[in-house]
Amino acid sequence: MFSRAYRIAITLPPLVWVILFLLLPYALLFCYSFWSVSAVQTIIHSWTLDNYRELLRVNVYLQTLFRSMWIAARVTLFSLLLGYPLAYYLSFYAEKRKEFFYQLVIIPLWVSYLVRAYAWKTILGSDGVLNTLLQYVHLTSHPLNFLLYSPFAVVLTLTHIYTPFTFLPIYAALEHIPRNLIEASHDLGAPPLQTFWRVILPLSIPGVLAGATFAFVLSLGDFLAPLLLGGPSGIMISNIVVSLFGAAYNWPLGAAISFCMLALVIGLLFFSERLEKRWGFR
Amino acid sequence: MGLPMSVPGNRSRWLPWHAALVFGFLYLPIVTLIVYSFNGPGVGGFPPRNFTLDWYRELFADDAIWTSVLNSLFVALAAVAISLALGIPAALALDRANFPGKVLFRRLVLLPLILPGIITGLSLLMLFREADVKLSLMTIILGHGTALISVATTEVFAGLQKLDRAQEEASLDLGANYWQTFWRITIPNLRLSIIGAALLIFTLSMDEIAVSFFLIGRDNTLPLEIWGRLRRGITPEINAISTLIFVFSLAAIVTWYRLRVRAESKLEIAAELVETGP
Amino acid sequence: MASAIHPEVSAKTANPTTRSLLSIRNIGKSFGRTPVLRSISLEIAEGEFLTILGESGSGKTTLLRIIGGFETADCGEIVMAGERLDRLPPYRRRVNTVFQYYALFPHLTVEENVSYGLRVAKLPKEEVAARVEQALAMVKMSAFANSKPAKISGGQQQRIALARALVNRPRLLLLDEPLSALDANLRRQMQVELKSLQREVGISFVFVTHDQDEAMVMSDRIALLRMGELEQVASPREIYDRPATVYTAQFIGHTNLLRGEVKGGIARCHSLSWPVNLPDGPVLFSLRPENIHFAAGMQGAVKFRAKLCSQIFHGATELLQVQCTDGLMLSLRTSTRASRDEDLDLEFLPAAAVPVRESGQGKKRD
Lengths: 282, 278, 366
Known about the structure:
The structure holds three protein chains of three kinds.
Chain A: H1 4-32, E1 36-37, E2 43-44, H2 50-57, H3 59-92, H4 98-106, H5 113-124, H6 129-136, H7 151-175, H8 179-187, H9 192-220, H10 224-230, H11 237-245, H12 251-280
Antiparallel strand pairs in A: 1-2
Helix pairs in contact in A: 1-12, 2-12, 3-7, 3-9, 5-7, 5-10, 7-9, 7-10, 8-9, 9-12, 11-12
Chain B: H1 15-36, H2 54-60, H3 63-96, H4 102-114, H5 117-130, H6 137-162, H7 165-173, H8 178-207, H9 210-215, H10 222-232, H11 236-274
Chain C: H1 7-10, E1 20-31, E2 34-45, E3 49-54, H2 60-68, E4 75-80, E5 83-84, E6 95-98, H3 110-120, H4 125-138, H5 154-166, E7 172-176, H6 184-201, E8 204-209, H7 212-218, E9 221-226, E10 229-234, H8 236-241, H9 246-251, E11 256-263, E12 266-269, E13 272-275, E14 281-287, E15 293-294, E16 302-313, E17 318-324, E18 329-334, E19 343-348, E20 354-356
Parallel strand pairs in C: 3-8, 3-9, 6-7, 7-8
Antiparallel strand pairs in C: 1-2, 1-4, 4-5, 9-10, 11-12, 11-14, 12-13, 14-20, 15-19, 16-17, 16-19, 17-18
């Protein structure tokens, strides 16, 4: 029913824009990762594999990448552990308060990410709220120093930030389960726990996958929480990139690391999409 | 606790406690933030003492913050305009046009939604450097606008799925051309999605830092201004401005929510009546 | 039942004029590899009420959408008043549509819905107002001018959809199963209203439905579509009395199919035989149940004896299943309560047995 002119009019502008401001920059990132930087800090536009060799040669890059993935994995796990039962509770038990609770999960998303990370800093610091509280009630006489400037603080903060993000797709998936399937399962003699394992959980897997992917990818690439709360032991891969683009001034090496992240993320998205198709039942 | 929809309730004993715990975890920093914005000795130290409005007074006298707020507002409004202007046609194209590379196009548009901001920010930084564009608020606007097309596209595309194609056919049938049909039928039918997308883009842009971090010129946006101060140490002024933003966002959500509930219930009745078919 | 013998007489009452308005020529359409329409040719006359009848998947809605301009045909052409209609976008065609679920604009009032076409045509305000008022009065909906579509009932929405289309004074009105969303009683009432409205405005209607009864009640002519091909185009009476194919005979009404053989001007089926004016060879006959009667000694009737097998009460009539002495099963419709007798003496007139083509083999039409 749509004429050719109409279809061109709706396709062309976004297509051109996306090529110009998304495809081209990502391609440029790829190119940069094969360039190098001269002694007088100008970019040399000639092709070399040095940046990738450097990545493999210097331990700190891979180590930091693995640490970032380990942090991201923990964030994902904790977000799921917090998000799934909450979604389950809202979907099946909250009844009339459902809508209210749902909004209650959403509202923190409207508070600046930066501000929430900062708030955790004020809570966890050595003279922060938590430590002074513990001393106030005489649970400890010295401030607990491991709270702030540690991977623990980063994982805690990122879990706080990504729990709503994992909650949302899981909740949507649970809400989409036809309630008569659960009735059918009971009718066929499956007790509640069995019904959960055999019906509810498998049908909510697509939501879990979406939420987990989101939490993992976004916390993997985070650089603000580690800068704010991580301390030396909480440095993540993006922090290295930031310093390479800043003070260290080695854009090509930074681009190489970024491109590896990009490839990793796209690979993950691809993988989770495959899994989702398998579990999607559609 | 009753047993809704035939889910047996013997496990619901610990679920409410878990839910309470999660809510506590989600709200602890927000509550702390607000409480300590009124704390005399500044941030930290339990219990809070000496209620004061000094930090708000200081905040209102702080020109740098308000300049950055204005910058952020400007950036956010411009980003809304750009991402809607491109996201609406993009959603229409995904819905009703077929062209080579459509799958790639879709993935590319949606990528910034899931990609860590640092990658999008860096890539654009390189583009602007290679094209010799000076970094300024304009580059941030371009960055936000481009990254947030993904939001506009998803929201509007979801709206399009609910739009009855016969509506537009009826309009064409009655003699309106494509352009008239777009403004008179398509846009009014999508208005909830569009308003929702605009609000979401606006808040995301106001809060955005990863992309802005790399594209910033001389003028700071609010998150970057806050970031700059945080590196210098903890200051209660940040609590004050954050509390204000929180209250404003809350008011915005409530208003939007009321609006949506009112409009949607009406529309849903309409949809039900119109689609009484088998 | 006498009319069954002279179908050509009764078929004439319909078509008010035979001047052609729309010519559909060799229209074909496939979705992917699936052909939905194969070389459809059809003439629609001025002021005619034509029904495109078919089961779901027969291609009837696609044909309507091609006329409306929402689908493009792969081949063939559509000509209206000497102009190639199929090359125009939908908004340039003097054709309007009543959509299946009405497609009323939910954000506009009834009045705004009806005036939509006139406003985009930029007609003067006074004329728009006058015509809208007239159109609303025509469908008896003037009182609802300021309501939103969501506030009015399904039947009322139906009327608004009609007014919205007719107010533009189209040459041709397309109706895509417009009554399918209504309940049975309202539906019957709307059938009558729609038919008289069509007479009143004198515009050609092309009406799509899957409901045979609806087609029979409303149409001047019925075009029966099956698997993308036209099975038969004729007046309701003719299509009922003289079905061209097995499919037509079975789809419209109820029938007995008799498989027989013609030899030397005599048709034989089991032990029955009667004179026909057909060439030698195997033949299928359609014999409507109501054309089999209890023996009353009609002139030239084929007489036979059968045993009553079952009896189904249908209100005004009864459907009897009988088995002839040679094993042939037949159904017959009767208005009188059949006697308790197990054995019945029956008869039918040779003209009531209509030769029909096997469906699917009939590529040649017209």
